[in-house]
């Protein structure tokens, strides 16, 4: 075989396939479209109108609930043994706020009712933590928060 001299020969090499810039732009557009679709889906679903207030016993849930119910009065707090429910109309939208008791024996009911059966009606969950007793009860707070997050994420 005869070899050709490599002097003076120009070879133009172009990469085969898609340019990385086009790929990045396409990915960015897909992410933006998916985000818009996600937020439109959440905005259009009218069924989710309930906000759930949960936390350990004596964490201040009923106090927050009382402030939402009547902003002008100082709410009387007490240990709840049943749900407190408040129906609100805010800017023409119907909302329901539920103060769920923090007693450990009622947590099964929380999971069964709100985090399983009524999950589709939940728009948000507020987990209340009392910072003054957190150091003493941090393990209980962590366990309860984990359970709520785990069960609310299931479909």
From TrEMBL:
Keywords: Endoplasmic reticulum, GTP-binding, Membrane, Nucleotide-binding, Receptor, Transmembrane, Transmembrane helix
Compartments, record wording: Endoplasmic reticulum membrane
Keyword Endoplasmic reticulum: yes
Record-level Gene Ontology MF annotations: GTP binding
Pfam families: SRPRB
Membrane-spanning segments: 20-41
Its membrane topology: Single-pass membrane protein
A cellular component annotation (GO) from this entry: endoplasmic reticulum membrane
Family the UniProt entry places it in: Belongs to the SRP receptor beta subunit family.
UniProt-recorded name of the protein: Signal recognition particle receptor subunit beta
Organism: Strongylus vulgaris
């Amino acid at each position: 075989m005869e070899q050709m001299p490599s002097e003076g020969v120009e070879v133009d090499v172009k990469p085969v396939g898609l340019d990385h810039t086009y790929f990045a732009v396409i990915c960015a557009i897909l992410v933006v479209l998916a985000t818009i679709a996600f937020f439109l889906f959440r905005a259009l679903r009218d069924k989710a109108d309930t906000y759930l207030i949960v936390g350990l016993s004596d964490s201040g849930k009923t106090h927050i609930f009382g402030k939402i119910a009547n902003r002008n009065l100082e709410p009387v707090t007490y240990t709840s043994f049943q749900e407190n429910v408040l129906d609100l109309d805010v800017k023409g939208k119907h909302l329901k706020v539920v103060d769920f008791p923090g007693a450990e024996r009622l947590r099964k009911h929380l999971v069964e009712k709100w985090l399983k059966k009524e999950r589709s009606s939940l728009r948000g969950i507020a987990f209340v933590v009392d910072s003054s007793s957190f150091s003493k009860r941090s393990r209980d707070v962590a366990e309860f928060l984990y359970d709520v997050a785990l069960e609310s994420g299931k479909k």
